[in-house]
């Protein structure tokens, strides 16, 4: 039995997350991944922005930094540059990372700075009551899209890939044992890495979109997740509304803080 | 080139002196975004920081630059950003974060004309109120206004020292004139420069509380990665650093944050007084405008007029006691500034009706000319 307690600040319980929220599953997967890598708690800095997922660092016994809305990656960039020896993990959500923080997300990927971003995608602004987000699918309802969203949704993983990330993986909380392996790979990867985690929000998304129960939402994730290997053999029509899971990008590229250190060594001598 | 020991006499601009002052103060991290008229500070530090093992990064926007500065400071680096009006506006949310989470950092704002993109290449002093109240909520801040190239060096060092001492963001308000004027300066020897480091907590102390209500009101800091794990947030928090909704704990936090500047006002504040002892008229001026004022006061004295100059270098906290005391002795205080009376309003408030406050305002991108101040002195003396 895995000892989650070794990593948790149990005095901060209960969690603020609603029953049926998938964020706790992702949290546990992340702790298993960190444990497998064998990182000490002192060498991890966990940085978040604002939103439900961004409350996660408060519950884990690392160096934790809860920042302003959208800016987690910017703060994390400063931490990583000042102390590259630290493992810096950013926990963020779809609104935090790709709406208000979208600029930081793509530029950190472009720089290929060694941050691991665990991006909880629940298609909605949960903490503020269910407003439409950049990943809300077209036609789906939110408190600020009462007639259904008339906007297209972001492909978050594709965005990171196009911007130059070293590692991009996508998984749902329906498969936590696969998810923790992806998170492990992402943390181990030297460079900017993203794990996009699809996680259900029955409270603010499901009940507006004909998935009132947690089980319905989990079944939806199960039925719509298609591993990359299988997706490659399917035609675009079959892939509509599907979530393509798996390791989407895994490259060895020059990493920003290492390149900067080389620059220092060069100009100092 | 950074000034070497043997070459302390230089001709340089205020922006260059600011960058040199930052290096001398021990700044080892800069994050910024290009903006006129401050960009030279970033350019110089991009060249010089790596030579001393420091880090420079040009971020994707002003907001990110402020965030990175806070992150680097929490990891233990003395950190700086430099900007101008529009960029200063964008940084405000994270400046509030630094105030709330008590993260030492220095923000240089080389003031240009506003509002909006305004006058990118022309001087102004219209950000003095933004320096005080730009971010939301009751928050502590320190703001400084040097008036010359040499002072840009000295007060950049001082900005870091104040920031590290009081765990507060410090705004260094240059204006376009100070930033871009070239002057001959003799920089102090490294041995003469006083450098202050933040008070450190003991990483072996397992009972360490990052936001403890200490006797000094300034909790000692531990950096990320030093062996004590704690939480930092912009939410109202208790002594442990975790969010709280407990009204008593919120009150303790917010009062301490503001008190820690108020109670050390005497150690923080700094101003220059010139011929005020027997004055009937005082000129209150700061930044580059104080140089026009100094000329006017001296010329008026030559003509036998009893006039003196009060020049705050620390604008915030505002020198209210000093202004009140001057207001008791003079019948007029003239306040020339490159805005529509932002500090004149403070002078009126601090004078509490005991003197007439006369404004001279210039907002067209031209400096307040010495002659204009002299004429006003003659008019009221």
Describe, in plain words, how this protein is organized in 3D:
Chain A is an alpha/beta fold. Chain A has one domain (21-268): Thiamin diphosphate (ThDP)-binding fold, Pyr/PP domains (Rossmann fold, 3-Layer(aba) Sandwich), CATH 3.40.50. In chain A, 34% of the residues lie in helices and 19% in strands. Chain A is built from 9 helices and 10 strands. An 8-stranded mixed β-sheet of chain A has the order 2-1-3-4-8-7-10-9, with helices on both faces. In chain A, β7, α6 (176-188) and β8 (193-198) form a beta-alpha-beta unit. In chain A, α1 packs across α6 and α4 (102-111) packs across α5 (156-163). Chain A starts with 22 loop residues before the first helix and ends with a helix. Chain B is of the alpha/beta class. Chain B has 2 domains: 9-192, Rossmann fold; 272-380, Rossmann fold (3-Layer(aba) Sandwich). Chain B contains 13 helices and 16 strands. Chain B has helices spanning 14-25, 39-48, 62-74, 85-101, 128-133, 149-166, 176-180, 247-262, 265-268, 289-302, 320-329, 342-351, 370-380, and strands spanning 9-13, 29-32, 55-58, 79-83, 105-113, 119-123, 142-144, 169-175, 182-186, 231-233, 271-274, 281-284, 307-312, 314-316, 332-337, 356-361. In chain B, strands 2, 3, 4, 5, 6, 7, 8 and 14 form an 8-stranded mixed β-sheet that branches. In chain B, strands 11-13-12-15-16 form a 5-stranded mixed β-sheet, with helices on both faces. Chain B has a two-stranded antiparallel ribbon with strand order 1-9. In chain B, α6 links the parallel β7 and β8 (169-175). The longest helix of chain B has 18 residues, at 149-166. In chain B, 56% of the residues are buried. Chain A binds chain B through residues 12, 41-43, 45, 47, 57-58, 61-68, 71, 73-83, 85-86, 103-104, 106-107, 260, 263-264, 267-268, and chain B through 28-29, 31, 50-53, 55, 57, 59-61, 63-77, 79, 93-94, 97, 223-227, 229-235, 242-243.
């Amino acid at each position: 039995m895995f000892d989650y307690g070794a990593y948790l600040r149990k005095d901060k319980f209960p969690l603020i997350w609603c029953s049926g929220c998938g964020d706790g599953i992702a949290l546990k997967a992340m702790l298993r991944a960190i444990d497998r890598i064998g990182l000490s708690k002192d060498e991890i800095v966990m940085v978040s922005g604002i939103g439900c997922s961004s409350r996660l660092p408060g519950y884990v016994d690392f160096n934790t930094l809860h920042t302003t809305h959208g800016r987690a990656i910017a703060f994390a960039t400063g931490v990583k540059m000042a102390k590259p020896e630290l493992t810096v993990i950013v926990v963020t959500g779809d609104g935090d990372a790709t709406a208000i923080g979208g600029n930081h997300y793509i530029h950190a990927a472009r720089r290929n700075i060694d941050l691991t971003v665990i991006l909880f995608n629940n298609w909605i602004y949960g903490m503020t009551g269910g407003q439409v987000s950049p990943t809300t699918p077209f036609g789906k309802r939110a408190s600020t899209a009462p007639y259904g969203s008339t906007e297209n949704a972001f492909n978050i993983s594709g965005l990171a890939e196009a911007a130059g990330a070293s590692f991009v993986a996508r998984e749902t909380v329906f498969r936590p044992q696969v998810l923790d392996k992806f998170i492990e790979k992402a943390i181990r990867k030297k460079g900017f890495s993203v794990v996009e985690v699809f996680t259900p929000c029955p409270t603010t998304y499901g009940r507006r979109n004909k998935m009132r129960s947690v089980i319905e939402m989990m079944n939806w994730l199960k039925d719509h997740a298609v591993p990359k290997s299988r997706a490659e053999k399917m035609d675009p029509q079959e892939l509509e509304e599907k979530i393509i899971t798996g390791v989407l990008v895994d490259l060895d590229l020059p990493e920003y803080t290492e390149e900067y250190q080389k620059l220092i060594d060069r100009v100092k001598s | 080139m950074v000034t070497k020991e043997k070459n302390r006499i230089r001709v340089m601009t205020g922006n260059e002196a600011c960058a040199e002052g930052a290096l001398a103060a021990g700044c080892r991290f800069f994050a910024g975004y290009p903006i006129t008229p401050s960009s030279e500070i970033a350019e110089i530090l991009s060249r010089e920081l790596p030579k001393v093992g420091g880090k420079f990064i040009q971020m994707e926007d002003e907001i990110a630059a402020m965030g990175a500065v806070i992150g680097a400071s929490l990891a233990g680096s003395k950190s700086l950003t430099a900007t101008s009006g529009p960029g200063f506006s964008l940084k405000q949310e994270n400046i509030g974060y630094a105030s709330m989470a008590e993260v030492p950092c220095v923000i240089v704002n080389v003031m240009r004309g506003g509002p909006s993109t305004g006058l990118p290449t022309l001087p102004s002093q219209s950000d003095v109120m933004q320096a005080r109240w730009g971010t939301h909520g009751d928050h502590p801040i320190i703001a400084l206004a040097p008036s010359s190239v040499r002072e840009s060096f000295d007060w950049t060092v001082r900005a870091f020292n104040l920031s590290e001492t009081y765990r507060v963001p410090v705004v260094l308000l240059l204006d376009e004139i100070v930033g871009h004027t070239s002057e001959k300066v003799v920089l102090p020897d490294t041995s003469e420069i006083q450098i202050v480091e933040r008070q450190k907590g003991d990483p072996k102390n397992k009972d360490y509380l990052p936001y403890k209500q200490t006797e000094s009101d300034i909790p000692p800091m531990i950096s990320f990665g030093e062996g004590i794990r704690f939480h930092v947030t912009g939410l109202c928090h208790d002594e442990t650093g975790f969010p709280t909704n407990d009204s008593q704990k919120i009150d303790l936090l917010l009062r301490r944050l503001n008190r820690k500047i108020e109670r050390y006002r005497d150690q923080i504040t700094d101003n220059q007084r010139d011929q005020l002892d027997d004055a009937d008229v005082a000129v209150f001026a700061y930044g580059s405008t104080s140089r026009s004022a100094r000329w006017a006061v001296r010329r008026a004295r030559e003509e036998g007029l009893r006039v003196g100059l009060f020049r705050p270098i620390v604008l915030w906290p505002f020198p209210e006691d000093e202004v009140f005391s001057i207001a008791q002795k003079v019948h007029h205080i003239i306040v020339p500034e490159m805005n529509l009376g932002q500090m004149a309003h403070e002078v009126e408030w601090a004078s509490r009706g005991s003197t007439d406050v006369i404004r001279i305002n210039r907002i067209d991108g031209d400096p307040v000319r010495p002659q204009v101040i002299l004429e006003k002195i003659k008019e009221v003396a």
